[in-house]
Amino acid sequence: MTHPVPRRERIRQTTIDEIKTVAHEQLAEHGAAALSLRAVARAMGMTPSAIYRYFDSRSALISALARDAYSSLADTLEAAFLAAPADDQMVRWLLVARSHRRWAKTHPTEYTLIFGPRPADLTGRPTAVQNEVERSVAVLFRCMQEVVEAGIVDLGVLDAELSPGLRARFQEWDCTDLGPAAEAACMLVWTQLHGLIALDLFDHLPPPLADSAELFDQQMIGALVRIGHRGPVDFAEVIRRADLTEQHTLAPT
Amino acid sequence: MTHPVPRRERIRQTTIDEIKTVAHEQLAEHGAAALSLRAVARAMGMTPSAIYRYFDSRSALISALARDAYSSLADTLEAAFLAAPADDQMVRWLLVARSHRRWAKTHPTEYTLIFGPRPADLTGRPTAVQNEVERSVAVLFRCMQEVVEAGIVDLGVLDAELSPGLRARFQEWDCTDLGPAAEAACMLVWTQLHGLIALDLFDHLPPPLADSAELFDQQMIGALVRIGHRGPVDFAEVIRRADLTEQHTLAPT
DNA sequence: CCACCGTCAAGAGCAGTGTTCTCGAAAGTT
DNA sequence: AACTTTCGAGAACACTGCTCTTGACGGTGG
User: Fold this and answer.
1) Are residues A30 and A150 in the same domain?
2) Is the C-beta of residue B247 closer than 7 Å to nucleic acid chain C?
């Protein structure tokens, strides 16, 4: 049988992958700023100049790693969404949020690469990255949509809070068929999620609260509930259900 | 009259200040990672080695800048708190939050220096930085205390959400005489505030929402109100009052 | 007044970096 | 077999943070 893809390009792709792998290790160890092309080349028995056959510059390499990071995060979120129970929207949201936090904790350097200052010279992004990030927010939107449709939260309260100008901005965004209030709700939980993860990851929380999964759960459930809950919510009960399904899906690996 | 402080140390302090000033400019222009000791020395007609008489290393310089940034932010917040009307706790909180956002927008590199990944090798911090950051959170606590005492929000709802373990952690924190629920409330608005500012500053918001003061106001008021509001709140009215006092205090400069 | 001594700045130098160039060897194509 | 494209090596340039040594200046004590 013949190879549909030329042998030349195949081995080229493998070296590209090897470069990215080695670079990924260096990045995970010493941080993004300390990523050295020469060190990467040295680690894989190459000359620094040879790397330039595969990446135009150091920034290009980091950009590629950043794109992979975006993709990895999106994969994780989608997987969490699909693995979560479809009939319990509250825990589904909590599990998605948890997987986001877990990913950030397991891939700290990638997280800073994505959400840190200036995403590593991602200037020339021909919607390559954009697609990946939209996959992530899509998961968030689906969670929100489910929660609203299930009648768990009422967007009426939040809708009343929106100023005309802000509502116009949300309508201009319009990346879904949900209304402006739903988009505002997404932004709300989104900022809360990112805020807590970032503060935690960068050691800006007081010691007793650092690395606290409980604080995260409480804030994430609360973020959803406070949008406009109908009736009281037993936080502990939600957490217990989430823990249960998580053990169920994580155990048989 | 004689100088109480020796002339020697005085001129030394001025050169230290000059180094910090020049470094600050370079930092503001090309970012923190691109700060070059040689460039700083070149800009002020010095030799690179001479700078080592004043700063042990490049990290030491950046740490010094970071400390100043912390101090600057704390000053800004305290000033905003004092300038705000004491009888309108809701707008007082909004004005403090706004000043935080404004500071972040006017000092982007300093903000990333503070809240970005690994605060620039701030390993040896003998509570020097710690004091400054506590000044900042103190302002937040005072806002929360005022709002609670004024009866604007009810901590009872939030208190019911806390799990025993989480309540224990908050009590262990105990950096104020307010209860665990109040501290949880502070963390809530704190994460929301930081999350939105960080996302905005690092260009992670969709274009229609980028750099939106309206979104910020809505989220900040909402964060406070949703903790446990008594009766409906007219967001537009709060914003109008805040705008008024802001024009009042900003105009006569 | 002079000698002293701590402080300062300069200069050279080391090890490292990203990047660009040229050149020879290998691989694939005709 | 000849030609072309691709690849890697090596040298070189302009940087970087940092260290060490060598003088020079200035305030202070004899």
Assistant:
1) no
2) no
pLDDT score at B253: 53
Which residues does chain B have with pLDDT short of 50? 1-3, 120
The alpha carbon of residue B193 is apart from the nearest alpha carbon of chain A, in Å, by: 8
d(CA A127, CA A114): 15
Which value does ipTM take for this structure?
0.92
Question: pTM of the full predicted structure?
Answer: 0.93
Q: Which residues of chain B have a CB within 8 Å of the CB of A193?
A: 195
Question: How does A109-131 read in b/e, with b if 16+ C-beta sit within 10 Å?
Answer: bbbbbbbbbebbebeebeeebee
Same domain, A39 and A130: no
Residues A23 and A58: their CA atoms lie apart, in Å, by 10
Name the E strands within chain A.
none
CATH code of A86's domain: 1.10.357.10
Task: Show which of residues 50-109 on chain B sit within 8 Å of chain A, judged by CB atoms.
Answer: none
Q: How far apart are CA B194 and CA A135, in angstroms?
A: 24
In angstroms, the CA of B183 and the C1' of D15 are apart by: 49
Taking alpha carbons only, the member of B199, B197, B57, B62 closest to residue B119 is: B62
User: Can you give the residue range of the structural domain that contains A24?
Assistant: 1-55
A176 touches chain B (CB under 8 A): no
Q: Over the stretch A40-87, which tens digit does the pLDDT of each residue have? A: 999 999 999 999 999 999 999 999 999 999 999 999 999 999 999 999
User: Is there a contact between B169 and A212 if contact means CB atoms under 8 Å apart?
Assistant: yes
Residue B106: exposure state from Cβ atoms within 10 A (0-12, 13-18, ≥19): exposed
Residue A131 is assigned to a structural domain of this protein: yes
pLDDT digits (tens, 9 = 90+) for A87-96: 999 999 999 9
Span CA (B37) to C1' (D4), Å: 48
How confident is the model at residue A122, as a pLDDT? 58
Contact B230, B90 (CB under 8 A): no
Mean pLDDT of A20-35: 94
B208 DSSP assignment: G
Is residue A61 a part of any domain in this protein? no
Instruction: Please tell me the distance from the alpha carbon of residue A107 to that of residue B59, in angstroms, as a whole number.
Output: 25
Distance B6 CA to C5 C1' (A): 17
Residue B62 within a domain:
no
Contact B118 A202 (CB under 8 A): yes
Provide the number of structural domains found in chain A.
2
* Mutation site for A-interface testing, chosen from B187, B200, B225 by largest number of A Cβ within 10 Å: B187
